[in-house]
Design goal:
Elements: E1 2-6, E2 9-13, E3 20-24, E4 55-59, H1 64-75, E5 79-84, E6 103-107, H2 113-120, E7 125-128, H3 141-158, E8 163-167, H4 186-201, E9 206-210, E10 213-214, H5 221-225, E11 235-237, E12 245-246, E13 249-250, H6 251-263, E14 271-274, E15 280-281, H7 282-292, E16 304-306, H8 311-323, H9 334-340, H10 367-370
Parallel strand pairs: 1-3, 4-5, 4-7, 5-6, 7-8, 8-9, 9-14, 10-13, 11-16
Antiparallel strand pairs: 1-2, 12-15
Helix pairs in contact: 1-6, 2-3, 3-4
The structure holds NADP nicotinamide-adenine-dinucleotide phosphate.
């Protein structure tokens, strides 16, 4: 006879032959600590309906990068906790990122520790994608990128989260010189302070420093495609964009790198620079984008000119800031303009996405598809299946 005793529910079961006692512990998930190792619960073939061993709370999941990260997490069979603010219907579309019942939502406030703890209590991974390009009345850069990030890291440490992934920004540095404003970008300053604050609370955090990220609903390709950014068909760029070097990165590569970092324990405590494979002058990127959108026709006023010669454009930025400070039209505001003309600087010796095994793709591989909705006369003069000639890729400088 063997007695199998479940704690809290003793069951006697008769068997012939051997006599043994087995003690099976039943976890009560609402009260037990996460003392077990989730990675040991891995099961399945690695697809959407298996379990990767990852239970990830993704702060900032409702943002641009968040959508891609959630999709990648769901694709390998992870449970995803989406903390949201505002209306739950705004994030409901993320439900299909994972398998049935694997994407869960919880309301939170970045200043409320209790709601943050609730969101990450049962997770072994926390990803912080919270960020803001401009300050609002309620949240200054410091509140979001420094105090908020540090709060998340501190609570993650307290509740026993194993991996903390934090998103900073390329060029974030204390020594940054201003390009067009009197002082350097507040975004970059708060991002470097945020990195330090996170590492103080969670020294094994993995930090990503992305350059401009492009993809569906980004703020790079779409920024230039907005009519508000143009001046009657022409586009003003600081020193015609010939003094700024950019190395944009594709969002799919960034999301893949997050998953690669989670799978690689050696990435804990490291900083990764997320940049694309090629460097370009901003002038060449913008010119290429306009050619892709078939809007580079001088007959219709297209030209790239020096922003310094156009006080009206400068007034436009100032007025946009005044009229709509908490939601700048077309993302046009002075801090963004300062960031726009800050050249991307890739630090030697700091790993990049390639060190996580990611084969980063070039701008010209994605831009035509991403810009299709903005392409002029897309459905005129061409049969639906007739390919239209693409312009040559922008000239890379390295
Ligand atoms: N996209 C880029 O080109 C780029 C470049 C460099 C660095 N980064 C950094 O990478 C991260 C992800 O970028 P992203 O493009 O996905 O950003 P995003 O589209 O602007 O999304 C930002 C996310 O942060 C949340 N958020 C902002 N302020 C918040 C607050 N006060 N309380 C709670 N949540 C708040 C937003 O929530 P709501 O939806 O509720 O507003 C949203 O989910 C950010 O840290 C960003 O700074 C991005």
């Amino acid at each position: 006879m063997a007695a199998v005793i479940f704690n809290r529910a003793p069951i006697l079961k008769k068997q012939t032959g051997i006599i043994g006692i087995a003690f099976v512990r039943v976890h009560n998930y609402s009260t037990e600590d996460k003392a077990y190792n989730l990675s040991q619960l891995k099961r399945g073939t690695g697809g959407r309906s298996s379990f990767s061993g990852i239970v990830a709370t993704v702060f900032g999941a409702s943002g641009f990068v968040g959508r891609y990260v959630c999709n990648r997490l769901g694709k390998i069979g992870s449970q995803i906790i989406v903390p949201y603010r505002g209306d739950p219907f705004d994030v409901r579309y993320l439900k299909v990122a994972g398998d049935l019942g694997q994407v869960l939502f919880t309301h939170f406030n970045l200043k409320d520790e209790e709601s943050i703890e609730k969101a990450m209590k049962y997770s072994n991974v926390v990803i912080n994608l919270i960020g803001r390009d401009y300050e609002t009345k309620q949240y200054k850069f410091n509140d979001v990128h420094v105090a908020g990030a540090a709060r998340l890291a501190k609570i993650a440490k307290r509740v026993g989260v194993e991996r903390f992934i934090h998103f900073s920004a390329l060029n974030a540095s204390h020594d940054l010189k201003p390009v067009i404003l009197k002082k350097p970008s507040g975004f970059y300053r708060s991002k470097i302070e945020g990195e330090e604050a996170v590492l103080k609370e969670f020294p094994a955090a993995t930090i990503f420093r992305p350059a401009d990220i492009y993809g569906q609903e980004d703020r790079f390709l779409r920024y230039y495609s907005q009519s508000w950014r143009r001046q009657f068909g022409a586009i003003p760029l600081w020193k015609r964009g010939m003094a700024t070097i950019k190395q944009p990165v594709y969002v799919g590569d960034v999301a893949a790198a997050v998953i690669a970092a989670l799978k690689d324990p050696d990435s804990a405590g490291k900083i990764y620079q997320a940049v694309g494979p090629k460097k370009y002058y901003l002038h060449d990127i913008v010119d290429y984008l306009f050619k892709v959108m078939r809007k580079a026709d001088p007959k219709r006023g297209y030209a790239i000119y020096d922003m310094r010669l156009d006080p009206i454009f400068q007034l436009k930025v100032t007025l946009t800031n005044l009229v709509s400070p908490s939601f700048p039209i077309a993302n046009l505001h002075w801090d963004k303009v300062e960031i726009e003309y800050t050249s991307d600087y890739v630090e030697r010796g700091v790993p990049t996405l390639e060190d996580l095994g990611i084969k980063v793709s070039a701008l010209e591989n994605h831009a035509p598809w991403q810009l299709k909705p903005f392409t002029y006369g897309l459905y005129h003069g061409h049969a639906a299946d007739e390919p239209y000639p693409q312009p040559p890729p922008p000239k890379a400088i390295a």
